[in-house]
Amino acid sequence: MSNQAIASPATTSSGSSLLALPAELRNQIHQLVLAVGPVVQLWYESGTGRFSSCAVPDTDAPIELLDPDHVSWLRSCKQVYHEAVQILYAINTFQLKAHDTAGGRYLRGYSGLATSTILAFARGIGRLNAHALRRVSFFMGPVWAQDAPNRARRQTLVRMIRELQVWKRGLPKCHLEASLRLIVSRVTRDSADFRFVVAMDPCAAIESLRRATADFHDAAAQETGELAIPALEVGMFVSLLEDLASELSHRKT
């Protein structure tokens, strides 16, 4: 309860049975109602009609919840809203996505989409609610491994990690995880998800990237028959992750 909003003393003038309950009980009710599930997925409507699936999300568009029924509790009355709104952000994990099916164009034209998406979310919920956040997951992808030069991919990932680290400094109590999905074969559409924790110190990200390198290499080595993941592709991606870890380690100093 220490990191959640605390209900104020009951005001019985409204005649509400809920508001007549002790503050501790009201907080427990708020938590039960507003616990959406393992992850609250958010996205931005691009406004491009039938082409929305292949458009970069518009971060100026309203945020949408997958299940808006959970937040209808906050609309019941002003006191319930003020008591419970920060509980909503404190007890749930929020997942934001920055999609681009044309990964090469995204990587070559990168302009801070990772940060702009999260900043739009933070601005949309307000400063106090943003400080109530405890768990945020950011997902970028999918991107094609062979759609951009190795150097461009490395610079994009380094920039994304750095921007997310800057954002996290303002929310020291929030655990931020970033995920990248990389498609490694156009033919068979085999893919691998590489997850790394964004921390104030990039050591955690470096270690996670090195584990991803080893896992990717081991998975390719265990393929039987015709390789679903070409050997050249494996070498390029392993080199990318190793270079990225090296660059983060260098910039740390």
Automatic annotation (TrEMBL):
Pfam families: DUF7730. Residues 15-100 form the DUF7730 domain. Signal peptide: none annotated. It comes from the Eukaryota. This is DUF7730 domain-containing protein. It comes from Friedmanniomyces endolithicus. The lineage of its organism: Eukaryota, Fungi, Dikarya, Ascomycota, Pezizomycotina.
